[in-house]
Amino acid sequence: MSTSKSRRPSAAAERCRKKFLRYFPGGFRDEKYVEWERGYKWETHERWEEALGRDEFRRLLRRGEFAEVTARAVRVEQSARYSMIFSFEKMALRDAVKEPEGARAFAEGLYDFLHGPGDTERRFERWVEVVAALPRRQTRVLTWPLVTVFGFIARPEEHFFLKPNVTRAAARAYGFDFRYQSRPDWETYSNLLEFAETVRRDQRDLKPRDMIDIQSFVWVQGSDEYAD
Question: What is the DSSP string of 43-99?
């Protein structure tokens, strides 16, 4: 009897693989792939480690420097060659953390999400609750890109970045039943991680290193930047 680990990728998955390799014949080690997709995302992760690695993050929290935490988090994301969140989402976040209570909630909630106790489900659910409760001025803060971008930057071995339209298009192309809900919740995020694991398993011979490689593969399938 075959197992899920030994099953053959679907025809749709094979078509997606061919598309990826058409752009990047060397797969995840292709020089153009590193230049176009992986390089700037990994550099953003490295900047995060310098600015808000676990020990430094904890030190800032202990000193009550919540505004500094939020400023560094936003600055690291903005430093990427291509910003991963929209300008209106950045504005909403800046508005939400202007007041001390917003900055504290964001800083403590983000640390708990990245490094706190409990499994991924519990930490993610707590993080969504924190973001949902942040002060809102004009634009809503609770969006999938805002909820997932910092986990992806800080811990790319565990977390995936969700751009809804691109990811939904990629899932359709891959033949994966992505059960998407517009309001961030664990059911959708766990299904997203299942999609990521499916891609990782199907493309394991290309040796994806982390979620950066998986997210980049998904991006190639769903983004208008990569026409069929």
Answer: HHHHHHHHHH-HHHHHHHHHTT-HHHHHHHHHHHHHTSSS-SS-HHHHHHHHHHTSS
